[in-house]
Design a protein that fits this description.
Elements lengths: L2 E6 L4 H12 L6 E7 L3 E7 L2 H8 L8 E7 L14 E2 L5 E9 L2 H10 L9 H16 L3 H11 L2 E9 L6 E6 L4 E4 L4 E4 L11 E4 L4 E6 L2 E6 L4 E2 L4 E2 L15 H7 L1 H9 L3 E2 L4 E2 L8 H6 L2 E6 L2 H17 L3 E5 H4 L10 E7 L5 H12 L3 E6 L5 H5 L2 E4 L12 H21 L4 H22 L2 H11 L4 E6 L4 H15 L2 E6 L16 E5 L6 H12 L4 E7 L11 E5 L8 H18 L18
Parallel strand pairs: 18-19, 18-20, 20-21, 21-22, 23-24, 23-25, 25-26, 26-27
Antiparallel strand pairs: 1-4, 1-10, 2-3, 2-4, 5-6, 6-7, 7-8, 8-12, 9-10, 9-11, 11-15, 12-13, 13-14, 16-17
Helix pairs in contact: 3-4, 4-5, 7-13, 7-14, 9-13, 9-16, 13-14, 14-18, 15-18, 16-18
């Protein structure tokens, strides 16, 4: 959940690193630091944002062509200057940056304390760099060998980059359970948590696999396993443009990404769906399509927004493909002893493809013989590499911490999966199949219509920006949208919000209703419409203020509520792709009006790569 960037080559390292840290700041923004080799190892670090670090470093001698940088999301130790990375070893010969958690750091630390080591920070990372130095001194080996031997004793997750005073031309990187990508230029190398800081300089990258160690030295890259087996680097070509990670005139990345959804949803379907010919094909599923079609049960794994997408998929798969579905929090799934049968299929959903809990749940399911499908956004991430098959959502980089376009991209893929299975199984008629294909192709244009409601949503936000609580209610396909709307609001505005099935309101939440409790109803004209009308009347009878997401031309609900937002009609199964848009905008505008940093909300990071 931290951002790593390192450079070794012919350029000045500091400008590359500080720019990279700014692009990685969505991964962590409690503190930041750099280490530059300039005749000696110089470390500069500061609590706060990358801009605070940059201001602090100005006036220092920052020349040097080798350096490492880190932006932190705190796990061990509070955010402050001392706990910020990089961390020196005791001799100050070695400097390390680290993303992850060393679970057995306490026992290692005690052993080092017994040997006379002292520690300045509260971090497990400082323990790791001293452990590496201790191994090197005791064994009398090279630093590369010391790193390899030390990591064999480490329990937990890590992505590390190390440079040393004794061999400044050498850079060592390693990973387990936390991503690292190596960019390859002309006799220069970039190491980072993801590709965003790299694409300005090169489109050729190597993704390190778990328990692999990379050594950059004398203009060459060598990779080997922790068992000392040499590996041949596989070079990937990045399909990513620089403007995809810039704000493009928007005030925030989140707003840009909300407005990118017509394109991102269209991109998720491009080359896969043709309603005129009645064809739908997700190429990544072909090898295992028979397993999907014959599955006795589908288990969907996800966290946060991805879990909400899975809940919508539960309705879709059961309705169209007539297969039982269970949706599990990945973080809980792995700590049970789940029953996975021979003909079950698991679908793992993750925007980043690096979510630690989801990766652990996948490994558990694989150990029980399950076939795993991945639904991810980031090409080359860990989840696509450990699953049997899957599909990318092709939403492009999502920089804002609160996920928006990834949610609609995930729903698009899951809808296509359900339709593909249903059509092959014969559980829907040909006419319904073709009608849904047509409706899917029209969704990007209808999202454009929803985005045209931005000014209206902003006006509503002004009315409610100072409230302390919100309640979101929906039924059927839109119950998970209520959960997602509540999550977006509390993530970025820090207003307490809860999502419920509308029918459950009478079983407890109705006790909270008064004139101070705004209630958002997702109320399209679907099979639950009359029930939703009754629920709204129950809230109004208790002086609740109601905001309703309704279909165009609605008069019944519109005349009952305080505020209504009209979205286009679509098939009931597809309404979440539209009804979520005003909720994203509402959360965004409320957060901005409250002075919150919507792209970097407190205590959160984009990619949760630690448990």
């Amino acid at each position: 959940m931290c951002g790593i960037i390192a450079y070794s080559g012919h350029r000045e390292a500091y400008p590359v690193i500080i720019k990279g840290l700014k692009r990685l700041e969505y991964r962590g923004y409690d503190s930041a630091g750099v280490a530059i080799f300039n005749q000696d190892l110089q470390v500069y670090k500061k609590k706060g944002r990358v801009s605070d670090l940059d201001a602090y470093a100005q006036g220092q001698d920052l020349h040097g062509t080798v350096g490492i940088g880190h932006t932190r999301w705190a796990t061990h130790g509070e955010p402050n200057d001392v706990n910020a990375h990089p961390h020196y070893s005791q001799s100050k010969n070695i400097v390390l940056i680290h993303n992850g958690i060393i679970e057995n750091y306490a026992s290692i630390k005690q052993d080092l304390l017994n040997k006379g080591y002292s520690f300045h920070s509260e971090t497990d990372s400082e323990v790791l760099v001293n452990f590496i130095e201790d191994v090197q001194q005791n064994v009398g080996c090279s630093l590369v060998e010391a790193v390899r031997l030390a990591l064999q004793k480490v329990v937990g997750a890590y992505a590390i980059v190390i440079i040393s005073k004794d061999n400044p031309g050498q850079m060592i990187a390693a990973r387990k359970g936390s991503p690292l990508v190596i960019g390859i230029g002309e006799r220069e190398f970039f190491v980072a948590s993801d590709a965003t800081p790299i694409i300005e300089y090169t489109n050729e990258v190597v993704y390190l696999d778990d328990q692999e160690l990379a050594v950059i030295e004398d203009g060459e890259l060598h990779i080997k396993s922790l068992d000392s087996i040499e590996k041949t680097p596989y070079i990937h070509k990045l399909d990513l443009e620089l403007d995809a990670i810039e704000k493009g005139g928007f005030e925030h990345f989140m707003l840009k990404e909300i407005f990118e959804q017509p394109k991102s949803v269209s991109d998720s379907m491009r080359g896969r769906i043709n309603s005129t010919e009645g064809t739908l094909l997700l190429g990544g599923l072909i090898e295992y399509i028979n397993r999907l079609v014959s599955a006795d049960r589908i288990i969907i794994l996800g966290c946060g927004t991805s879990w909400h997408a899975g809940l919508v998929a539960e309705y879709i798969f059961e309705e169209l493909a007539r297969v039982p579905v269970e949706v599990e929090y990945a973080s809980e799934f792995r700590y049970r002893n789940p029953i996975i049968r021979e003909n079950d299929v698991v679908i793992a959903i993750s925007q980043s493809g690096e979510t630690a809990d989801t990766l652990a749940a996948i490994e558990l399911a694989k150990s029980k013989g399950a076939i795993i499908f991945g639904v991810c956004n980031v090409v080359g991430a860990s989840i696509p590499r450990v699953t049997h098959a899957g599909a990318y959502i092709h939403a492009g980089p999502e920089i804002g911490v609160a996920s928006t376009k990834a949610f609609t991209g995930q729903l698009s893929i899951l809808m296509m999966m359900a339709l593909m299975i249903a059509h092959r199984k014969g559980t829907i008629t040909e006419s319904r199949y073709r009608k849904l294909l047509v409706e899917l192709e029209q969704i990007p244009a209808k999202i454009e219509q929803c985005l045209a409601l931005n000014a209206q949503t902003q006006y509503i936000a002004e009315v409610f920006k100072d409230v302390r609580n919100f309640l979101y209610l929906g039924r059927g396909y839109n119950f998970p949208v209520a959960l997602e709307g509540a999550l977006k609001l509390k993530e970025i505005s820090y207003i307490h919000a809860e999502g419920y099935p509308a029918a459950e309101m009478k079983h407890g939440p109705i006790a909270l209703i008064d004139e101070e409790m705004p209630v958002v109803f997702i109320a399209p004209h679907d099979s639950s419409y009359e029930k939703i009308v009754s629920n709204i009347q129950e809230v109004k009878a208790r002086k609740g203020r109601v905001i309703a997401i309704v279909n165009e031309g609605d008069t019944v609900i519109k005349n009952l509520v305080d505020f209504s937002i009209e979205i286009p009609y679509t098939s009931e199964e597809l309404t979440p792709l539209l009804s979520v848009i005003p909720l994203q905008l509402l959360a965004y505008h409320i957060a901005v009006m409250r002075g919150c940093d919507v792209d970097r909300p407190r205590n959160l990071a984009k990619s949760v790569t630690v448990e």
